[in-house]
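Lecture 7 notes: from sequence to structure.
We start with the chain below.
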Amino acid sequence: MRFYSLFLSLFVAGSVWSQSLVAVDFTDLKATVFPNFETKEVSGHCQFTFIVNAPTDTLRIDAKNMRFSLMMLNGKAVEYNANARQLLLYTGFKKGKNRLSFSYTARPKQALYFVGTADDYQIWTQGQGKYTSHWLPSFDDVNEKLTFSLSVTTLEDEVANSNRLIAISNGELVKKESFRAIQEGKVYTTWSYQMKKPMASYLVMLAVGNFDQKIASSASGIPLESYLQPKDADKWTTTYWHNERIFNFLEKEIGVKYPWRIYRQIPVRDFLYAGMENTTSTLFAQDYVVDSVAVNDKNYCNVNAHELAHQWFGDLITAQSGKHHWLQEGFATYYALLAEKELFGEDYFYYQLYRNANLIKAAAKNDTVPILHEKASSLSYYQKGAWALHYLRDQVGKKVFDKIVKTYLKKYALKNVVTADFLAVVQRYSDFDTEAFQQRWLESAKYPEADINQCLAKSAMVQALVQLQKERSLPLESKLSRYTTLLQSEAFWPLKAEVLFQLKGQPLAQTEALYRLALERGNLEVLTAVSELLTDIPESLKTSYETLLHAPSYVVRGNALVHLLKRFPHDRMRFFEIAKDWRGANDLGLRIDYLGAYLVLMPETNPDYASLKAELIDFTSPKYESVTRIPALQQAVSLFPQENEVLKNLVNATQHPKWQLVKYARDTIRKLIKQETFRERFTALIPELPTDAQSELQRLLK
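Predicted structure tokens for the same chain:
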């Protein structure tokens, strides 16, 4: 919780820059914030408490492109300076306790995001890697920890919205109050939250949206809040699958009581990542809101466990710098795997370790940056960091490993750490060679093959899978009997998927019986493998293959529809009839695949053609998330590039917070405007676009 004020002085002799470090301890921030969807601005009032421990000439608070007013220090108006990055004060503070208050306004370009439309919007934050100081005066340095208490104000129509909006922040909700605004029919509601312990600024969050809430309780009595949009009322069980079990397992496995007073999880639209471990309040991507079919293709369990583990590893104790980021991501990734082992079994656990090992091995061919480096890859911080911990646990034993982790967490609670701090605790409880471990696992980018193979040798399933993969070059006829037995067995599904992989391109006379066996007796993972690998469907397997159109998997259904339409075009009307009401998962990918196939294969004179075309174009609009808009735009630009609505939505996409959608939109516009016809059409659209979109299009047209 130390804040170091840096000032630069130039020594004339030698022209050397130096810095003076002056200890100022910011202890807490009480803030009221009002994010305004209409103006895309945030305004608020802040009250900081800080202690000056030594003489200093400048106080600095990170604040990106903010406007300030009502600046008061210890009850008196005070002069200040503000640049594009910081708020600076030079006078008015004293040794000991001080209070600083002010109002501010900002129009954040990142870290605070407004998504959706005026009739259905969400507002949410992402601090890690984006800096909370874009929307809240705070500290970019993760070593400056404060106790935050935020009050978030919403504004909505009294009649039309019926107080649907909920505002969420870190900590416990201590008060909610509403009052009518000066504007007739408008209502302000302020939601006040309070934290009791300090945290780094990047973990501060807010979320505003139309949510329903459910509250459960952990075995230790921690309130567990979960949220969903009202439209997802049928998805509570499947989205929060194993939720309480994951919490109870991790609290017991880690061995240290959950460090905060409440835990909540909120899915938000177009979130930048899978999830974010804001203290007490995890945000996660709407993609993980799944129904009873989508949960078989993608579930929230791993992300759930990963972000929850961060409440200890990252929130309670925080790495001092990016160089030691693996202390957060490696631990969270490993404990998430342990949670999945509890849920899905040892074979699942070892298969994930095996897959990650293969990714690490492949990356090591080109990646020369080790884990212990601020520019390490995500694969290194997450998966290789988790593998390092698994190797350590394997060597010292679970009992000693658990004692190490428990001591580490208790010793450094609410503090910042480096790798040496963790390894010192390892040395305290074991004779494990931490120096060799650090050199081989953390400071070298090489693949630690011997260590990993030693661990994987303990899994009979992995060894069987490796043996199967070694047989890929053998003639199929020499393996048919064993492979038939394997497909009939209860063996873990990756073994069966490997068998199916080896059937690709082999004579139908040898493979038909095995494919039929997989289709008739395979579990869902095996059926997924069939739908991906068997693309040229023989007539003899057509009836069996068509059962995939009814599989409890949107991935399998989509694969099957594409392959059947291509292989049996004369049956397309029957296939389209089966798929006509498909929607798919949150991304609506299954529906978009159906629309694309229908609009390509069916004539424009078909009675449904116009309505399905309009539906596809509608999916390209800002009403939908980027995961829907990207495939919809890909289809629409390919099929209907002459439609102005498609081109307008393409330009609008350049203003989206998700870089994937922005990149696709910019790249597509650049490609289209190489043709003079499209350049003229885009130019004609400029007056119809919002100001920001106009500027971006004009830039691209230059």
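Points to note: The two ends are 49 Å apart (CA to CA). The mean pLDDT is 94.
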